[in-house]
Amino acid sequence: MANTGVFVRLRLVLQELCVGLAYRPIPRSAKGEVVLRAFRLRDAASVRQLFFGLNPQGSFSVLKLMLGLVAFRKLLIIAEDVRTRQLVGLDLFYFNDRDLRERTVHEGFIGVVPAYQGRGLATAMRELAKLHFRSNGLSGISTRITQDNVASLQSALKLGFEVVDGVFDASAGYEKYYLVCPLEGSK
Fold it and tell me: Within 10 Å of residue 26's Cβ, how many Cβ atoms?
């Protein structure tokens, strides 16, 4: 059975490499003084720092970073303040086994630094993601959001995400929702 896990992981890595080579680039967009754009190689250290600053318990392996050097240009949306050139948000996508079966991509993390929250940046990044992934032929975007993350839930629901599953995480003591946003016919 261990070989099955290795096979699935290898399939996921190959899918992300194919995305890095085949998908159209993330289009550039603006939201006030913030530009939304694709990851650039020079962003690697800042992205890692921002990710852990927003998500201290998160995981960002060396393999994910190495893979990202190829695929992040198509799977990672950056929010950058044009005045300060500082990264102020990110929306990170990857594929899991369910996504490969359902022709979706998984939003693994979305975050905005506190000083920029409440300005609609998470919503703007998700809107850009919908446009980007629909133009690359995917059928939807999946995500997991905890019940206590009200702002993220509201942003996702407003953009057409629908709760598909709810799972109670006994170790954490809260419910996580699995949501999917269908891209066919979306704006």
Answer: 26
Average pLDDT over residues 45-65: 82
Architecture per CATH, 2-182: 3-Layer(aba) Sandwich (3.40)
Nearest CA to 91 among 70, 111, 115, 106? 111
**Cβ atoms of 105 and 139 closer than 8 Å:** no
* pTM (global) more than 0.90: no
Terminal-to-terminal C-alpha distance of the chain: 42
Residues 52-61: pLDDT tens digits? Answer: 999 888 776 6
The H or E element spanning position 63 is: helix 62-75
Domain ranges of the chain: 2-182
Checking DSSP bridges between strand 29-31 and strand 174-182, what pairing results, if any? unpaired
